[in-house]
Amino acid sequence: xxxxxxxxxxxxxxxxxxLEAMMPFFRERYGNPLSLYELGQNAKGALEEARSKxxxxxxxKPQEMIFTSSGAEANNFAIKGLAGAHAKKGRHIIxxxxxxxxxxxxxxALEKEGFAVTxxxxxxxxxxxxxVLEKAITNETSLVSVIHASPEVGTIxxxxxxxxxxxxxxxxxxxxxxxxxxxxxxxxxxxxxDAMSISAHEFYGPKGAAALxxxxxxxxxxxxxxxxxxxxxxAGTENIPAxxxxxxxxxxxxxxxxxxxxxxxxxxDRLISGVLEKIENVYLTGHPAQRLPGLASFCVAxxxxxxxxxxxxxxxxxxxxxxxxxxxxxxxxxxxxxMGVSAQLAQGSIVFSLGVENTGEDIEYAxxxxxxxxxxxxxxxxxxGGWGKVKxxxxxxxxx
Amino acid sequence: xxxxxxMDHFTNPRNVGEIPxxxxxxxxxxxxxxxxxxxxxxxxxxxxxxxxxxxxxxxAAIAVSSMVTEMVxxxxxxxxxxxxxxxxxxxxxxLPPQKMHCSNLGADALRLAIEDYKKKGTAx
Lengths: 400, 124
Prior knowledge:
The structure holds two protein chains of two kinds.
Chain A: E1 4-5, H1 16-22, H2 24-27, H3 38-58, E2 65-68, H4 71-85, E3 92-96, H5 101-112, E4 116-120, H6 130-136, E5 141-145, H7 159-168, E6 172-176, H8 188-191, E7 195-199, E8 210-214, H9 240-278, E9 282-284, E10 295-300, H10 305-314, E11 317-318, H11 334-338, H12 343-346, E12 349-353, H13 360-380
Parallel strand pairs in A: 1-11, 3-4, 3-5, 5-6, 6-7
Antiparallel strand pairs in A: 2-8, 7-8, 9-10, 10-12
Helix pairs in contact in A: 1-9, 3-9, 4-5, 9-13, 10-13
Chain B: H1 4-11, E1 24-29, E2 36-44, E3 47-56, H2 59-72, H3 77-81, H4 85-91, H5 97-102, H6 106-123
Antiparallel strand pairs in B: 1-2, 2-3
């Protein structure tokens, strides 16, 4: 029996149709879109066809999509490129505390360059309150960026309301929709955003292709200077096979999304209710209703996330955790901490993200094995009966 | 990421539990940072005859606790005090570098248990 994959927010397996669409572009149709002869123009045609399909997924015009190499690049591009190009309006930007590192870290880099950055707090469900943005925004604010939905806790942010506040104040609005693109309908017009990041490998496309939607007429500074590719906004010979794959994946997603989301939400709800019923002292993280269709995230008290992941992996279950020990930086998830989850409870973070290849039987299997793994680790834990002297408000103070 | 030996001690940890009326108790770590180890020991004629642990933490932390309780049985207090973090890590076939500091608390918890035993002895 193979492993059962519950980590679709880490990456997805490519759909076979996507691989098939990509294959001719490695050996036969390998031309450079800038070349004038037929081989080049053939690649140019494929590039523009893919651009059109990707644009349709988010309700944009083809010329508003800029291809990048990753979601992280698209996010860096949006933050640095927009803040840089619109510094005349002001040198203040706003991002939320729910953001991915690829938003937070370029924002911190701008801080070092003299920009003022506001990190918007969130409530216990991970929601950014539009009233809080209203208070934080000033005449100097050039850019606001809030994640569309969190891959860690699933919460879907009120982007339409937040974007309207930015517009009213003359600031641009970007949303990181990398975790949403395969699972929620996205429409840049309806949301009223100026920029949006999406990444192919989060919707059954290949790694190495992603895109930034940028509303027509919006100025941006390139991250990568060079040739005239992507209308001079992103230099470098295009990764045609991956971009073609992204186009195919976008086309499939657009067609299948309502049914995908319905199925995933059903499996998610079964998993959430099963876990809450079978395990004591376990807490759902993120918004209980306004959440990604495939995302079931929890904090399990008295045990640690990495140990849970190893225990589950031994049973062929692949999941994720935001615990300090499971991160390379050895820091607990800032998203959980910003939602007010205590540091010791955040150690028990576990995230199951479901995708198209999961079945109801996978969910039942996980519901059999997960409570057993928790029970086993609690037998080992000194806190099995409660946190004892550890207080809710205790913080991690390393010894040396 | 982890050696086969370490995974064996994680999946089948030895000496889980707490010795009732233990001669020495040692606890090290902080759950807000990630790992906590509690070791209890039984001492007879200057030798550690039994050791048990409870651990809150990652796979490495659990394996370290299991290994240190195995290593210490039958040792004199002096020998036990000289067990180093490096020796525990080596016995597990090595630890990933980022785990050497935070998850490798077994030797420290053991030392605290021995000091606790000695303190109780002087009090008697």
